[in-house]
Amino acid sequence: SDDEGNEFVLEHLHTLEYNGTFYMAFLPTDIEEDDPDYGLIILKVVEEDGEEILGTVDDPDELQAVYEQFASVLFDEEEE
User: Fold this and answer.
1) How far apart are CA 48 and CA 6, in angstroms?
2) Would you say the pTM of this structure is higher than 0.85?
């Protein structure tokens, strides 16, 4: 669910490790393609109470760096 409580299904696109942390990229499956509010969603794997969960990437610099890593991988795959 998003910050406003709207629930949607995500399609897992790719997982990568960057600076010792795992990140996962998703796209909503039930959102209109031209909906400007939703695009690539990047979450990181964090440990909480001994369990791995998905958390948001709150640091804008970290998010940009990870986005560039995903863009490199995902767009290279599309070109092939």
Assistant:
1) 24
2) no
